[in-house]
Amino acid sequence: MIRRSGPLVATAVAAALVLSACGGAAQDASDAAAAPAAPAAPAGGPLDLSGVCPETVVLQQDWQPEAEHGAMYSLVGSDYTVDAGAKSVTGSLVAQGVDTGVKVEVRPGGPNVGFQPVPALMYLDDSITLGAVNTDAAIVASADQPTVAVASQMTVSPQILMWDPASHPGMTTIRQVAASGSPVVTAGDVIPALLESQGIIKKAQSDTSYEGTPARFVSDPAIMQQGFATAEPYVYQNEIAEWSRPVGSEPLANYGYSIYPEPLAVRADKLEQLRPCLEKLVPIMQQAQIDYLAEPGPTNRLIVQLVDAYQTGWTYSEGVANFSAQAQVSEGFVKNDPASGVFGQFDPARMQQIVSTFGPILQSQGTITAVPDPASLYTNEFIDPDIKMG
Protein backbone atom coordinates (compact mmCIF):
# COMPACT_ATOMS: atom_id res chain seq x y z
CA MET A 1 0.00 0.00 0.00
CA ILE A 2 1.43 3.39 -0.99
CA ARG A 3 0.33 6.26 1.20
CA ARG A 4 0.15 9.86 0.15
CA SER A 5 3.57 11.33 0.72
CA GLY A 6 2.53 14.26 2.87
CA PRO A 7 2.42 18.05 2.66
CA LEU A 8 3.85 19.88 -0.32
CA VAL A 9 5.52 16.87 -1.91
CA ALA A 10 8.67 17.67 -3.82
CA THR A 11 8.51 17.33 -7.59
CA ALA A 12 11.27 14.75 -7.67
CA VAL A 13 9.46 12.57 -5.17
CA ALA A 14 6.21 12.96 -7.08
CA ALA A 15 7.83 11.94 -10.31
CA ALA A 16 9.23 8.83 -8.69
CA LEU A 17 5.77 7.82 -7.56
CA VAL A 18 3.94 8.23 -10.89
CA LEU A 19 2.25 4.96 -11.75
CA SER A 20 0.71 4.06 -15.08
CA ALA A 21 -3.08 4.28 -15.04
CA CYS A 22 -5.19 1.65 -16.73
CA GLY A 23 -7.59 3.26 -19.19
CA GLY A 24 -11.10 2.20 -19.92
CA ALA A 25 -14.56 3.41 -20.76
CA ALA A 26 -17.16 4.32 -18.21
CA GLN A 27 -18.64 1.26 -16.61
CA ASP A 28 -21.89 0.80 -14.72
CA ALA A 29 -21.55 -0.06 -11.06
CA SER A 30 -22.20 -3.75 -10.53
CA ASP A 31 -24.90 -3.22 -7.91
CA ALA A 32 -26.27 0.17 -8.94
CA ALA A 33 -29.22 -1.19 -10.92
CA ALA A 34 -30.42 -3.26 -7.98
CA ALA A 35 -30.47 -0.35 -5.53
CA PRO A 36 -33.65 1.72 -5.23
CA ALA A 37 -33.53 5.34 -6.37
CA ALA A 38 -33.65 7.98 -3.67
CA PRO A 39 -36.78 10.12 -3.45
CA ALA A 40 -36.52 13.68 -4.72
CA ALA A 41 -35.81 16.45 -2.24
CA PRO A 42 -38.79 18.78 -1.63
CA ALA A 43 -38.73 21.50 -4.29
CA GLY A 44 -37.09 24.68 -3.08
CA GLY A 45 -36.11 23.13 0.25
CA PRO A 46 -32.63 23.13 1.79
CA LEU A 47 -31.71 19.82 0.10
CA ASP A 48 -32.90 20.86 -3.39
CA LEU A 49 -29.78 21.97 -5.26
CA SER A 50 -31.38 22.18 -8.70
CA GLY A 51 -31.24 25.64 -10.20
CA VAL A 52 -28.69 26.97 -7.70
CA CYS A 53 -25.77 24.55 -8.12
CA PRO A 54 -24.09 23.32 -11.32
CA GLU A 55 -25.88 20.39 -12.96
CA THR A 56 -22.88 18.32 -11.88
CA VAL A 57 -21.15 19.27 -8.64
CA VAL A 58 -17.51 18.30 -9.18
CA LEU A 59 -15.52 17.46 -6.05
CA GLN A 60 -11.74 17.22 -6.40
CA GLN A 61 -9.73 15.26 -3.84
CA ASP A 62 -5.98 15.54 -3.25
CA TRP A 63 -5.21 11.82 -3.19
CA GLN A 64 -6.48 8.36 -4.04
CA PRO A 65 -9.92 7.19 -2.81
CA GLU A 66 -9.76 6.52 0.93
CA ALA A 67 -11.89 6.80 4.04
CA GLU A 68 -10.47 10.19 4.94
CA HIS A 69 -12.51 11.41 1.95
CA GLY A 70 -15.62 9.53 2.99
CA ALA A 71 -17.96 12.54 3.08
CA MET A 72 -17.44 13.23 -0.62
CA TYR A 73 -17.97 9.63 -1.68
CA SER A 74 -20.98 9.23 0.62
CA LEU A 75 -22.93 11.66 -1.55
CA VAL A 76 -22.69 9.45 -4.66
CA GLY A 77 -26.09 7.90 -5.32
CA SER A 78 -26.75 4.27 -6.11
CA ASP A 79 -27.11 5.06 -9.85
CA TYR A 80 -23.40 5.82 -10.11
CA THR A 81 -21.09 4.99 -12.98
CA VAL A 82 -17.33 4.57 -12.77
CA ASP A 83 -15.05 5.92 -15.48
CA ALA A 84 -11.87 3.89 -15.05
CA GLY A 85 -10.09 5.86 -17.75
CA ALA A 86 -10.84 9.32 -16.41
CA LYS A 87 -10.60 8.04 -12.81
CA SER A 88 -13.92 9.42 -11.62
CA VAL A 89 -17.27 8.31 -10.23
CA THR A 90 -20.52 10.11 -11.08
CA GLY A 91 -24.05 9.68 -9.77
CA SER A 92 -27.02 11.52 -8.37
CA LEU A 93 -26.03 13.69 -5.43
CA VAL A 94 -27.94 12.05 -2.60
CA ALA A 95 -27.88 13.77 0.80
CA GLN A 96 -29.70 12.64 3.92
CA GLY A 97 -31.55 10.04 1.88
CA VAL A 98 -32.93 12.32 -0.84
CA ASP A 99 -31.93 13.15 -4.41
CA THR A 100 -30.85 16.79 -4.47
CA GLY A 101 -31.67 17.23 -8.16
CA VAL A 102 -28.07 17.48 -9.39
CA LYS A 103 -25.29 15.02 -10.04
CA VAL A 104 -22.01 14.70 -8.18
CA GLU A 105 -18.66 13.69 -9.66
CA VAL A 106 -15.79 12.82 -7.33
CA ARG A 107 -12.27 12.88 -8.74
CA PRO A 108 -9.15 11.53 -7.01
CA GLY A 109 -5.82 13.34 -6.96
CA GLY A 110 -2.20 12.23 -6.60
CA PRO A 111 -0.93 10.07 -9.47
CA ASN A 112 -4.33 10.30 -11.16
CA VAL A 113 -3.62 13.97 -11.97
CA GLY A 114 0.17 13.88 -12.28
CA PHE A 115 0.52 15.00 -8.64
CA GLN A 116 -0.71 18.50 -9.45
CA PRO A 117 -1.81 20.48 -6.37
CA VAL A 118 -5.57 20.90 -6.02
CA PRO A 119 -5.51 24.72 -6.43
CA ALA A 120 -3.69 24.28 -9.74
CA LEU A 121 -6.30 21.77 -10.89
CA MET A 122 -9.10 24.13 -9.89
CA TYR A 123 -7.63 26.93 -11.97
CA LEU A 124 -6.99 24.61 -14.92
CA ASP A 125 -10.50 23.12 -14.88
CA ASP A 126 -13.36 25.54 -14.39
CA SER A 127 -15.83 22.68 -13.78
CA ILE A 128 -14.43 21.86 -10.32
CA THR A 129 -16.86 23.14 -7.69
CA LEU A 130 -15.04 22.25 -4.47
CA GLY A 131 -11.50 21.03 -3.92
CA ALA A 132 -9.78 19.56 -0.85
CA VAL A 133 -7.03 22.09 -0.12
CA ASN A 134 -4.78 21.70 2.93
CA THR A 135 -4.21 25.04 4.64
CA ASP A 136 -0.48 25.01 3.94
CA ALA A 137 -1.23 24.33 0.26
CA ALA A 138 -3.66 27.26 0.29
CA ILE A 139 -0.89 29.50 1.66
CA VAL A 140 1.44 28.35 -1.13
CA ALA A 141 -1.19 29.00 -3.81
CA SER A 142 -2.48 32.27 -2.34
CA ALA A 143 -0.63 34.58 -4.72
CA ASP A 144 -1.43 32.98 -8.09
CA GLN A 145 -4.23 30.45 -7.46
CA PRO A 146 -6.08 31.72 -4.39
CA THR A 147 -8.75 29.53 -2.81
CA VAL A 148 -11.24 30.14 -0.02
CA ALA A 149 -12.02 27.28 2.36
CA VAL A 150 -15.75 27.03 3.12
CA ALA A 151 -15.98 23.99 5.41
CA SER A 152 -13.61 21.88 7.48
CA GLN A 153 -14.39 18.16 7.38
CA MET A 154 -11.40 16.85 9.33
CA THR A 155 -10.69 19.05 12.33
CA VAL A 156 -7.20 17.88 13.33
CA SER A 157 -4.49 16.52 11.04
CA PRO A 158 -3.90 12.76 11.41
CA GLN A 159 -0.31 13.19 10.17
CA ILE A 160 2.08 11.31 12.48
CA LEU A 161 5.66 10.35 12.91
CA MET A 162 5.99 6.64 13.63
CA TRP A 163 8.74 4.43 14.96
CA ASP A 164 9.55 0.85 15.92
CA PRO A 165 8.88 0.32 19.66
CA ALA A 166 11.50 -2.45 19.81
CA SER A 167 14.18 -0.10 18.47
CA HIS A 168 13.15 2.65 20.88
CA PRO A 169 12.08 0.83 24.06
CA GLY A 170 10.01 2.81 26.53
CA MET A 171 9.72 5.85 24.24
CA THR A 172 6.21 7.16 23.67
CA THR A 173 6.64 10.60 22.12
CA ILE A 174 8.20 12.15 19.04
CA ARG A 175 10.37 14.30 21.28
CA GLN A 176 11.81 11.27 23.06
CA VAL A 177 12.59 9.32 19.89
CA ALA A 178 13.99 12.38 18.12
CA ALA A 179 16.36 12.99 21.03
CA SER A 180 18.01 9.66 20.23
CA GLY A 181 19.25 11.19 16.98
CA SER A 182 17.20 8.93 14.71
CA PRO A 183 16.70 10.07 11.10
CA VAL A 184 13.30 11.66 10.44
CA VAL A 185 12.19 10.43 7.02
CA THR A 186 9.60 12.57 5.23
CA ALA A 187 8.64 13.36 1.65
CA GLY A 188 8.86 17.13 2.04
CA ASP A 189 10.71 19.67 4.11
CA VAL A 190 7.83 21.38 5.94
CA ILE A 191 7.56 18.83 8.76
CA PRO A 192 11.30 18.75 9.53
CA ALA A 193 11.47 22.55 9.33
CA LEU A 194 8.65 22.78 11.87
CA LEU A 195 10.41 20.37 14.23
CA GLU A 196 13.78 22.06 13.74
CA SER A 197 12.25 25.44 14.61
CA GLN A 198 11.27 24.02 18.00
CA GLY A 199 14.62 22.37 18.64
CA ILE A 200 13.06 18.89 18.56
CA ILE A 201 15.32 17.62 15.79
CA LYS A 202 18.61 18.77 14.34
CA LYS A 203 18.98 19.58 10.67
CA ALA A 204 21.26 16.56 10.21
CA GLN A 205 18.38 14.27 11.18
CA SER A 206 16.14 15.43 8.34
CA ASP A 207 15.84 12.96 5.46
CA THR A 208 13.31 13.92 2.76
CA SER A 209 13.74 10.75 0.69
CA TYR A 210 10.45 9.09 1.72
CA GLU A 211 8.80 7.74 -1.41
CA GLY A 212 5.62 6.40 0.15
CA THR A 213 6.43 2.70 0.49
CA PRO A 214 7.23 0.62 3.61
CA ALA A 215 10.58 -0.63 2.28
CA ARG A 216 12.80 1.79 4.18
CA PHE A 217 10.98 1.45 7.51
CA VAL A 218 11.00 -2.37 7.34
CA SER A 219 14.69 -2.56 6.50
CA ASP A 220 15.86 0.23 8.80
CA PRO A 221 13.59 0.21 11.89
CA ALA A 222 15.70 2.76 13.76
CA ILE A 223 14.22 5.61 11.70
CA MET A 224 11.18 7.76 12.31
CA GLN A 225 8.82 8.03 9.32
CA GLN A 226 5.80 10.11 8.48
CA GLY A 227 2.41 8.49 8.10
CA PHE A 228 -1.25 8.84 9.02
CA ALA A 229 -2.78 7.73 12.30
CA THR A 230 -5.83 6.69 10.29
CA ALA A 231 -3.91 4.18 8.18
CA GLU A 232 -0.30 3.20 8.91
CA PRO A 233 -0.81 1.68 12.38
CA TYR A 234 -3.37 -0.72 10.88
CA VAL A 235 -1.56 -1.35 7.62
CA TYR A 236 1.85 -2.12 9.14
CA GLN A 237 0.39 -4.49 11.69
CA ASN A 238 -2.14 -6.25 9.46
CA GLU A 239 -1.18 -5.88 5.82
CA ILE A 240 2.62 -5.73 5.59
CA ALA A 241 3.82 -9.29 6.07
CA GLU A 242 7.45 -8.20 6.57
CA TRP A 243 6.39 -6.15 9.62
CA SER A 244 3.16 -7.56 11.14
CA ARG A 245 3.47 -5.87 14.50
CA PRO A 246 2.47 -2.56 16.10
CA VAL A 247 4.24 0.71 15.47
CA GLY A 248 4.70 3.56 17.89
CA SER A 249 3.41 6.96 16.80
CA GLU A 250 2.34 10.43 17.87
CA PRO A 251 0.32 13.05 15.95
CA LEU A 252 2.33 15.97 14.65
CA ALA A 253 -0.57 18.18 15.70
CA ASN A 254 0.95 17.90 19.20
CA TYR A 255 3.96 19.81 17.85
CA GLY A 256 2.27 22.65 16.01
CA TYR A 257 1.26 20.87 12.80
CA SER A 258 -2.02 22.72 13.12
CA ILE A 259 -3.22 22.91 9.52
CA TYR A 260 -6.81 22.12 8.62
CA PRO A 261 -6.43 18.91 6.59
CA GLU A 262 -8.30 18.84 3.29
CA PRO A 263 -10.96 21.48 4.00
CA LEU A 264 -13.38 22.12 1.15
CA ALA A 265 -12.46 25.19 -0.86
CA VAL A 266 -13.61 27.19 -3.86
CA ARG A 267 -11.62 29.35 -6.21
CA ALA A 268 -11.54 32.86 -4.76
CA ASP A 269 -12.75 34.35 -8.03
CA LYS A 270 -15.79 32.02 -8.09
CA LEU A 271 -17.00 32.66 -4.56
CA GLU A 272 -19.67 35.18 -5.54
CA GLN A 273 -20.84 33.13 -8.53
CA LEU A 274 -21.22 30.01 -6.37
CA ARG A 275 -22.76 31.80 -3.38
CA PRO A 276 -26.36 30.57 -3.98
CA CYS A 277 -25.06 27.01 -4.33
CA LEU A 278 -22.75 27.20 -1.33
CA GLU A 279 -25.56 28.40 0.93
CA LYS A 280 -27.16 24.97 0.51
CA LEU A 281 -24.17 22.78 -0.40
CA VAL A 282 -21.93 23.65 2.55
CA PRO A 283 -24.45 22.51 5.21
CA ILE A 284 -24.93 19.33 3.14
CA MET A 285 -21.17 18.74 3.26
CA GLN A 286 -21.10 19.39 7.02
CA GLN A 287 -23.82 16.80 7.60
CA ALA A 288 -22.37 14.36 5.06
CA GLN A 289 -19.23 13.87 7.13
CA ILE A 290 -21.24 13.25 10.30
CA ASP A 291 -23.56 10.82 8.51
CA TYR A 292 -20.67 8.98 6.85
CA LEU A 293 -18.86 8.40 10.12
CA ALA A 294 -22.08 7.15 11.73
CA GLU A 295 -22.42 4.46 9.04
CA PRO A 296 -19.21 4.19 6.97
CA GLY A 297 -19.68 0.65 5.61
CA PRO A 298 -21.52 1.34 2.32
CA THR A 299 -19.25 4.22 1.37
CA ASN A 300 -16.11 2.28 2.30
CA ARG A 301 -17.21 -0.51 -0.04
CA LEU A 302 -17.58 2.04 -2.84
CA ILE A 303 -14.13 3.45 -2.09
CA VAL A 304 -12.54 -0.03 -2.30
CA GLN A 305 -14.41 -0.70 -5.55
CA LEU A 306 -13.08 2.53 -7.05
CA VAL A 307 -9.51 1.73 -6.05
CA ASP A 308 -9.84 -1.64 -7.78
CA ALA A 309 -11.38 -0.04 -10.89
CA TYR A 310 -8.82 2.73 -11.28
CA GLN A 311 -5.86 0.30 -11.35
CA THR A 312 -3.14 2.83 -10.51
CA GLY A 313 -1.06 0.53 -8.31
CA TRP A 314 -2.66 1.94 -5.15
CA THR A 315 -4.14 -0.73 -2.91
CA TYR A 316 -6.76 -0.13 -0.26
CA SER A 317 -8.69 -2.67 1.77
CA GLU A 318 -12.04 -2.50 3.49
CA GLY A 319 -10.17 -3.31 6.71
CA VAL A 320 -8.07 -0.14 6.64
CA ALA A 321 -11.09 1.90 5.50
CA ASN A 322 -13.09 0.74 8.52
CA PHE A 323 -10.10 1.35 10.80
CA SER A 324 -9.75 4.86 9.41
CA ALA A 325 -13.41 5.76 9.92
CA GLN A 326 -13.25 4.56 13.52
CA ALA A 327 -9.94 6.30 14.23
CA GLN A 328 -11.15 9.61 12.77
CA VAL A 329 -13.65 9.80 15.62
CA SER A 330 -11.95 7.87 18.44
CA GLU A 331 -8.63 9.70 18.03
CA GLY A 332 -10.34 13.09 17.82
CA PHE A 333 -9.34 13.99 14.28
CA VAL A 334 -12.96 14.68 13.31
CA LYS A 335 -14.83 16.66 15.95
CA ASN A 336 -16.69 19.91 16.47
CA ASP A 337 -14.65 23.09 16.25
CA PRO A 338 -13.34 23.46 19.82
CA ALA A 339 -13.82 27.23 19.81
CA SER A 340 -17.45 27.39 18.63
CA GLY A 341 -18.77 23.86 19.12
CA VAL A 342 -19.96 23.87 15.49
CA PHE A 343 -18.92 21.11 13.13
CA GLY A 344 -17.01 22.28 10.06
CA GLN A 345 -16.43 25.84 11.27
CA PHE A 346 -13.01 27.50 11.12
CA ASP A 347 -11.48 29.11 14.18
CA PRO A 348 -10.09 32.59 13.27
CA ALA A 349 -7.44 32.40 16.01
CA ARG A 350 -6.27 29.02 14.75
CA MET A 351 -6.14 30.29 11.15
CA GLN A 352 -3.97 33.19 12.34
CA GLN A 353 -1.71 30.74 14.17
CA ILE A 354 -1.41 28.50 11.09
CA VAL A 355 -0.36 31.40 8.88
CA SER A 356 2.00 32.73 11.54
CA THR A 357 3.65 29.30 11.82
CA PHE A 358 3.80 28.10 8.23
CA GLY A 359 4.02 31.41 6.39
CA PRO A 360 7.56 32.19 7.59
CA ILE A 361 8.67 28.57 7.04
CA LEU A 362 7.43 28.62 3.44
CA GLN A 363 8.87 32.09 2.93
CA SER A 364 12.30 31.06 4.22
CA GLN A 365 12.23 28.07 1.85
CA GLY A 366 11.47 30.34 -1.09
CA THR A 367 8.09 28.72 -1.68
CA ILE A 368 6.21 32.02 -1.23
CA THR A 369 7.30 35.64 -1.37
CA ALA A 370 4.60 37.13 0.84
CA VAL A 371 2.60 35.76 3.75
CA PRO A 372 -1.15 36.04 3.03
CA ASP A 373 -3.81 37.56 5.26
CA PRO A 374 -5.38 34.62 7.14
CA ALA A 375 -8.88 36.07 6.57
CA SER A 376 -8.41 35.65 2.81
CA LEU A 377 -8.04 31.87 3.10
CA TYR A 378 -11.44 30.93 4.57
CA THR A 379 -15.01 31.97 5.33
CA ASN A 380 -17.60 30.72 7.82
CA GLU A 381 -20.49 32.52 6.12
CA PHE A 382 -22.04 29.35 4.67
CA ILE A 383 -21.70 27.19 7.78
CA ASP A 384 -24.91 26.07 9.46
CA PRO A 385 -24.24 26.69 13.19
CA ASP A 386 -26.86 24.14 14.20
CA ILE A 387 -24.90 21.22 12.68
CA LYS A 388 -22.85 19.54 15.39
CA MET A 389 -21.49 16.11 16.10
CA GLY A 390 -23.36 14.38 18.90
From TrEMBL:
Give the lineage: Bacteria, Bacillati, Actinomycetota, Actinomycetes, Pseudonocardiales
* Signal sequence residues: 1-25
Keywords assigned by UniProt, alphabetized: Signal
Please state what the protein is called. ABC transporter substrate-binding protein
